[in-house]
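pasting input
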Amino acid sequence: MTDAAGTIEAEQNRNIRKRWLLSLPALLIILVAATGPLLIVLLYSFLAPGPYGDVQWAPSLEGWIGVFLEKDIFDETLSLASAHISIFMRSVGLSLVTTILTLLVGFPTAYFIATRPEKTRELWLFLITIPFWTNLLIRTFAILEVIRNEGLINGLLIKTGLIAKPIQMLFTDGAILTGMVYVYLPLMVLPLYASMEKLDFRLVEAGYDLYATPFRVLRKIIIPLVKPGIIAGSILVFIPALGAYVTPSILGGGKNMMLGNLIELQFGQGRNWPLGSALSITLMLIVMVALLVYVRNAGSQGSRHG
Amino acid sequence: MKRITTIMAATAALLATTGLARAEGELNIYNWGNYTSPEMIKKFEDQYKVKVTITDYDSNDTALAKVRQGGSGFDMVVPSQNYIPIWISEGLFLETDPGKMENFSHVAKEWQNPEFDPGRKYTVPWAMGIVGTVVNTDVYKGDINTWGIIFNTPDELKGKVNVVPEMTDVIDAAVLYNGGKKCTGDLAILKKVRDTLVAAKPNWVAMEYGTIQKMGSGDFAASSDWNGSAFRQRLANPAIKFGYPKEGYVNWSDNLAVLKDAKNVENAKLFQNFMMDPANAGMNSGFHRYANGIAGSSEFMPADMKDAPEINIPAEFASVGVPSQTCPPEVQELYTKIWTELQK
């Protein structure tokens, strides 16, 4: 008996080992391709900047100090890097608002699709994915053409005589938000739809049978059940939005920096690669913390309803 | 076994032919976007049976960073004069000695022995221009020959001014506006510069590169800009004029050099010599709309360039131009800090 059990166990172990060995090449590639460049960035953040870009092979903490503290160039006093903080806050704020707006627009959209007959759902989903066929830059320029001073909207309004002078829509915060929501909406709709598709609508009906108001059904039944989708969608929107810089600079006019611009500046005209690297790592850390918070919340919610 | 030998022989033959093809006729040029006349490249290709490939970059720093890493595969590059001393000191250029090439005699006197490449040991002039202002004179009728357009914006232009976000250009302009010298490390001046910029920014509508299209479509009514770009805007709308800031402006030039790790050195040298031929330089100017530093090339330019006020600097403004040069790293750091504060 014990022998037989031992054989089975050995067989299982061998199987496990084989699986690991078979997936080893893929794991190695992921490890090297994902962590390799990151390690270089991390290393660069602890070196001194070269005089004309690049790094000097001398250890230095200047890059990291520069992320948080700044020496006033005129009176040499050291203070919190207010410029960096306000740029960080702008990026985080924009990402948050974008996430909320895409959720507000994406939730009804996903609900609409999920409640269609099964045959037509595919078509609706297909329509949602159409924007993905074109490059982000082209989609952003398309919005620019619509809202510019001599663009589609202003042109129509002036022709119909509703306004005499074009309304300045381009280069405003509203323009940035419109662009961001448009660009990131599919990333919110798709995971939301995935979890709504699994929603058991009998539970919704049961709620109505028990005289729940539509709002109560939404709040107590639908939202808790599709929460994983909401969380996944929010992560998918929030994280890329944090580093977004094409859309804000094209539609916002580039007067105010986003995190992405600030990092780009250090690698380009600023010629301070260590500071750029340290800023990149800081951005990653923020994303990681945000993710952890999400995942922990998702975990506790999941177990309660599971 | 026999099959393996056949395959090896075939591979060897293939390698040999491709190797040969490369040696005979390829040239990889790394240049700014929208800056090389396709017609002129065609002429070079036909004349020397060389296949030319052009790859774009959008800033001096990008080009420098990419080539410095090695193995870029490019043969030639066209950096701005303020970056050329960096390229030379980092040993990235091949000393091709254009000063001794056949067509060198066509290079205009003032460009034969520039400070950034004494004796023209590495580079050949490609294009040269000015950073100034463009103004739509339908919107604003006042004096446009001043940085005040950008830094002390007149009422008619408020909320319609764009600034091209070239950090060094913008800060240098503000330095000149405040009576300082380009690349200054003088903190008293830089403080004024910072205050000027911060006070001016609320009047700007954007900080963007795409001026040709947006000046044309009326999204901008004024901007800081390069003269060649201004020229193209005027051709589209005659009301758009180029201003030579009387407080001083920066003269720049871009120059063609061969990289040390170039694979097609002979073709690259041929191209350097080709570019100093007035006919070819003129053809190229007809495309990018800048002057080119080759004497006699204006004969080969389109007729509208001969007396264009953007290209031929009026005598009264010629003296206030200052040459573009590399700012020392410590000044660059001060500039970056002011720039970050401006856009925070």
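fyi Chain B touches chain A at residues 59, 61-62, 64-65, 68, 86, 90, 159, 162, 165-168, 187, 190-191, 194, 201, 204-208, 217-219, 329, 332-334, 336-341, 343-344 (CB under 8 Å).
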